[in-house]
Amino acid sequence: MNRRSFLATATAALVLPYQALALTKGQAESLVGKLVADINKVIASGKPVSGMIPEFERIFTRYGNVRAIARSSMGPDARRMTSAQESAYVKAFSGYLARKYGKQFDKFMSGNIQVTGASQKSKYFFVDGIASRSTGGAFEVTFVVRDSKFIDMHVEGVSVLKTERTEIGSMLDRRKGNIDQLIADLRKAG
Amino acid sequence: MQSESFNLKRPLGRTVAIVATLTLFAGCAADPNADPSAEIYDPYESANRKVHEFNRGVDRALFRPLSKGYGTVVPDGGRQIVSNFADNLSLPADIINNLLQGDVKSAGNNTYRFVFNTVVGIGGLADPATEFGIPRRKTDFGETFHVWGAEEGAYVELPLLGPSNQRDAVGTVLDFALDPVSMVVPNPEKYVGTAANVMDKLGDRYDAGDAIDTVLYESADSYAQAQSLYLQNRRFELGDSDQETYVDLYDDLLLLE
Questions:
Q1: Which residue of B has its CA nearest to A103?
Q2: Are the Cβ atoms of A119 and B243 closer than 8 angstroms?
Q3: Which residues of chain B make contact with A142, given a CB cutoff of 8 A?
């Protein structure tokens, strides 16, 4: 995808109401393009990392299905949360995610992500790309989109969702299943 | 690493390597958890966790501070040179594994890399081959066994070397034992390669510093995190991760409502 066609589809994507349309592969790709562009804008802002984190959190919430990712990371226990607990949990989780991964962004998300292909399997779109780091070296990334929202990202085969499922599971085990305690700790973690 | 103790000119070293390899394949058919994309198979978990704590201790006391020192004192350019040198010396072993895997194309590419970087890159200090379109693609005996049909087996965490699995652990023994460069180069020059390798690892630890620190020191369960990250990445490296299995995973895992 060259620069011009990328910009054209990205502009087209701006006027599309994401939720209403069934996504096509091209739309999934341009969604990735928009996400990467927004992240790069934050990185280029020159703020210290601590200033970028709230921006990343905004981006995650805008583009990603943070609620689904958060609940899925907790696993079956998520079903026993009250709606107040769930709101608090999703908010705490989104901050934790922004801190944990935002720290790495300027190392591996800045610069170019060249989309190499996209495929649809069932309800999921897998958008593959190659990210080149500013310090050199390239690595493979895959963005996963469902219902027009990101639900996962793979970096060299490592899935954020899988990794967080393990980690949040461990955190909850440590707190003997106490969700309120988990929420309190998530606010400080990452 | 004592190359002499694995010198394959000595019958004992050779026998150990062969027996270890055969054990790998003998266990193949009996392995109940042979599906590489299945849940984690970790029957040795309690032993592994002890090794993990040991490794963390070594990292905290030694490896991490050394890597910070190295990364602070030697600038990025210098570290890149060390890395190039170490990578170049690993190419003969890669070529052997390419051939064992029947991957003639990669064997050719790696031969080109080795010659080009050694000559034009001045003994491998530079890496012009990548600029010329032949980038680095590591391989090892673990991958060769995979290509030959061996399943990964149980997860193991190795002392100092970190996460691995039964198949790859045997592969690592052979990687050390059968390194052609250390077999051909006389003492003490062969240790220059080992030293470069260690420095290269310190450089990696420095570059990935924040990410590694998060996993090792800020996780609720660093053992489970390291295991998860390793298995996901290794399966991906070997071409074992399939987007189809992700569909099933997401359908199971995603709690959308």
A1: B210
A2: yes
A3: 243
Tokens 């390239």 sit on residue:
A138
The pLDDT tens digits of the residues spanning A61-117 come to 999 999 999 999 999 899 999 999 999 999 999 999 999 988 887 776 666 788 888
* Tens-place pLDDT, residues B3-16: 444 454 555 665 56
CA A172 to chain centre: 22
If you measure CA to CA, which chain B residue comes closest to A136? B80
Q: Does A71 touch chain B (CB under 8 A)?
A: yes
ipTM > 0.85 (yes/no): no
Which neighbouring-strand residues pair with A149? Answer: A146
What 3-state class would DSSP assign to A114?
strand
CA distance A176 to chain B (A): 13
HSE-up (13 A, CA, CB side) for residue A25: 12
pLDDT tens per residue across span B90-146? 999 999 999 999 999 999 999 999 999 999 999 999 999 988 888 889 999 999 999
Quick check: B52 contacting A, CB < 8 Å?
Answer: no
CA distance B222 to B215: 6
Residue type present at position B51 = V
Question: Whole-angstrom Cα distance, residue A168 to residue A93?
Answer: 10
> Any residues with CB less than 8 A from the CB of B149 and at least 6 apart, and which?
B25, B28
- Say which of A121, A136, A166 has its CB closest to residue B225: A166
Q: Which residues pair with A141 in a beta bridge?
A: A129, A155
